[in-house]
Amino acid sequence: MTTELLRQLDFTPLVDAEEREITGGFCGDLLSWAMGRCTEGQVWFTVMGNLNAVAVASLADAAAIVLCHGAALMPDALARARSEGINVFATDLPEYEACVAFAREME
Amino acid sequence: MSEAITLRYTVPGDDFTRAGEASADVKRNLKRMGVDREAVRKAAIALYEGEINLAIHAGGGEITVTLTPDTIVMLLEDHGPGIPDISLAMSEGWSTAPDEVRSLGFGAGMGLPNMKKYSDRFDIQSTVGVGTTIRMEVDLA
Ligand SMILES: Nc1ncnc2c1ncn2[C@@H]1O[C@H](COP(=O)(O)OP(=O)(O)O)[C@@H](O)[C@H]1O
Ligand SMILES: [Mg+2]
After folding, report:
1. How many angstroms does the Cα of residue B96 sit away from the middle of ligand 1?
2. Has this prediction a pTM greater than 0.95?
3. Does the predicted interface ipTM exceed a cut of 0.85?
4. Given its phi and psi angles, is residue B26 left (phi above 0), alpha (psi -120 to 50 degrees) or beta?
5. B5-139 maps to which CATH number?
6. Which residue from A74, B12, B15, B54 has the fewest beta carbons nearer than 10 Å?
7. In this structure, which ligand is nearest to the CA of B63?
8. pLDDT, position B19
9. Where are the domains of chain B?
């Protein structure tokens, strides 16, 4: 499975970086929790669209960020995600539902 | 080959959004030098938490990263308020972070525990009114 899967789920690509292998998913909004628990290659479901969230995704080597609930990606975060090569997708689905849809496809 | 490589950074105390630049730079440099991926990942996570702490709790500080043939050594020094009770500060979930920091997604009290978790050796010295020094080491595979 790769980040191509996220496109098939109709999540909207906001930053199209390189295609990455997906190892699983992680859901949560507290950045230190995400940084400590999101492992390499996981897709991170969150509502945090700020600069720090992009830094966390980059440092944790997440395969992609999926911004849920229609949460906005801040302009500076968008620029950083582009320059650091972080895949970012958006969806209007709540985090729980986005995760469920993702989990079904991962099976 | 036995020569150590040193990277130095000054973390500003006033600009929380800039915190993360040092750890991102360390990650880039170590990756480029071909350092083991998992070691780089652990070091970058531990350092980012430390960098955030320098910015939000200490009014800024200094970071020195040294790469030896078998270890990444990270030293964080500040002249901030210091930590009155280190074992309390080290416990998961304990935080004095202000609301504005929490609204950005930090301040969950997981920083110091993460730093310890992701480093192979972790040492913290702190004196109230003087400052805090943290030394973290990550072994190369
Ligand atoms: N460099 C520092 N100088 C002063 N106090 C610190 C420093 N680092 C951490 N602390 C104190 O320890 C607490 C716990 O730190 P941490 O585990 O990183 O959680 P958080 O940063 O989310 O509050 C902080 O809330 C703060 O009171
Ligand atoms: Mg912290």
Report:
1. 7
2. no
3. no
4. alpha
5. 3.30.565.10
6. B15
7. 1
8. 77
9. 5-139
